Amino acid sequence: MGIPTVLDRVIQQAILQVVQPVFDPGFSESSFGFRPGRSAHGAVKQVRKVLGKGVWVVDIDLSKFFDRVNHDVLMTRVARKVKDKRVLCLIRRYLRAGVEVDGSIQPTTEGVPQGGPLSPLLANIVLDDFDKELERRGHRFVRYADDFLLFVRSRRAGLRVGRSVVWFLKQRLKPEINRQKSRLVRAGQCQYLGFFFYR
Questions:
Q1: Quick one: 30 exposed, middle or buried, by C-beta within 10 A (0-12, 13-18, 19+)?
Q2: How many helices (H) and strands (E) does the chain have?
Q3: Which is more confident, 80 or 106?
Q4: Cα torsion at 69, 72, 73, 75 (round to 10°)?
Q5: Nearest residue to 168 via CA among 135, 119, 121, 193
Q6: CA triple 92-97-99, angle to 5 deg
Q7: What is the pLDDT of residues 57-79, one digit of tens each?
Q8: Which of 30, 81, 99, 178 is the most buried (most CB within 10 A)?
Q9: Where are the beta strands (DSSP E) in 78-188?
């Protein structure tokens, strides 16, 4: 957790209120995490709706996603729509501000500090490229923050899609994949955001 000071929290909230309306309308309809008017319950309802059609579920776990966001990858995506260099500089400074652990400051060279108002939006900005790629390929999916499920019609398709998606993530966004927690399951064995789904 990176808990900002009161002043930093106020400034981050001000940035969020200006920047979020710029990015949010362009986010995917299948993205539910940390967005106005959307919630985990909406994601769960979407999973229920899709499971009636899909037979297999690809569940890929991103290991410590928030802690490992690549700053250059993130800032490149922020700069696509934010042109004010002062705002870009301020966001980068928040990313690299460091955290205090046992009285000493540790530098932050990657990741978005959880606990600040700006962090959820920055995570969605990073993962929006992933959403757009899945849409371009015609995949059905649901994403809440860094938790996502893809729905396919067969085990063979699931294996192929899983490999392809992992390759895309590593090449473009550079997260670490937790292969032990990633899995391919039938719809009746699906678990998401603490809910079990049965057909």
A1: buried
A2: 6, 8
A3: 80
A4: 100
A5: 135
A6: 140
A7: 999 888 888 888 999 999 999 99
A8: 30
A9: 99-101, 104-106, 140-144, 147-152, 176-186
142 by Cβ neighbours in 10 Å (0-12 / 13-18 / 19+) ranks as buried
The model's pTM is 0.89
Determine whether 145 is exposed, middle or buried from the number of CB atoms within 10 Å of its CB (0-12, 13-18, 19+): buried
At 161, list the tokens.
């899609």
Hunting for tokens 């396919």 — which residue is that? 152
**Could you tell me the pLDDT band of residue 2, with boundaries at 50, 70 and 90?**
low
CA distance 172 to 175: 9
Rounded Cα distance between 170 and 177, Å, is: 8
CB of 41 within 8 A of CB of 153?
no
Give me the pLDDT at residue 1, please.
58
How far apart are alpha carbons 192 and 149 in whole angstroms?
8
